[in-house]
Amino acid sequence: MTSAFKDQMLAGKTAFVAGGSSGINLGIAQALARAGARVGLISRDAGRIEAAAGTIRAAGGSALGLAADVRDFDAVEAALARTRAELGAIDIVVSGAAGNFLAPALGMSANGFKTVVDIDLIGTFNVFRASFAHLNKPGASLIAITAPQAHNAMMFQVHACAAKAGINMMVKCLAMEWGPAGVRVNGISPGPIADTEGMARLAPTAEMEQRYKARLALRDYGDKSDIADTALFLCSDNSRYITGTIIDCDGGSKLGDASADALQPPPRA
Ligand code: COA
Ligand code: NAP
């Protein structure tokens, strides 16, 4: 956690992180716990989510790991109810469960497309919709983890682009509907983040990684802590007047191709 955030600023709060067994979402869960929040986490795999919760408890935090698939509304609802019963009414919800693979549209079955839309888009609706009854209102903060694919068309990413674009619009609609109840709804759009499953899938070779970095304005991958710090901001009082917004923590990904090749000016007449 950076010095911009007060120690234990989330003491007494309860958070729920969907897709929290690894990567960016686990990094967020760990940062919320370091800031004093009690954290409920879900993912499909009972062993992986229990291990993730264990890392938080080993560091002195309070965590409950539960197996639930975000495609199953009843399972998500049950996990939220148990989190509330054991850790208290929920102040912070992070919806970051996702699935992805590189495939051309013509190399993808209808079920392949549907699987990613079900996990990312429908899953986020399920998590947010089921959470509403369990929220500490007013004052709750909901955060969707989206991606630059929501804005930037990308080869072999029709499923993820469609799903994440849907999430961005869902954030705005829910922010309008739930703002009067004192519930803020925002998103974080991470750029390429080092040491994650997502980038292992999108840029699996060192050469692809270099090409990715060369196109970025900031010329490097981000760290999981960059996304965790953005999440801390979105669930702190420092962002109390921000809702319906997607924060791009992406090294400039959304700006487009910033590579030297793209910048060659024509000879001056
Ligand atoms: N190319 C094309 N289609 C693929 C594919 C690939 N690389 N990987 C999976 N699919 C298709 C499958 O063939 C299947 O379609 P079918 O029934 O018509 O054959 C469909 O996707 C569902 O696959 P399945 O393995 O049954 O789904 P699942 O629910 O067990 O797993 C995935 C979901 C496919 C997204 C899997 O990659 C996953 O669990 N991902 C989580 C981790 C992750 O992606 N992290 C990065 C987050 S950004
Ligand atoms: P990751 O480690 O694979 O995280 C995905 C998580 O979702 C895992 O905990 C996985 O756990 C869980 N999950 C998958 N399907 C699920 C389901 N149906 N129900 C419940 N949980 C499910 O990947 P990551 O790269 O860190 O990505 C995390 C988030 O950041 C995603 O939303 C991704 O789109 C976004 N993002 C990542 C990057 C990047 O650079 N990595 C860039 C932009 C956006 P189980 O396998 O145990 O279920």
TrEMBL record:
Keywords: NADP, Oxidoreductase. The keyword Oxidoreductase applies. Transmembrane segments: none annotated. The keyword Transport does not apply. This is Short-chain dehydrogenase.
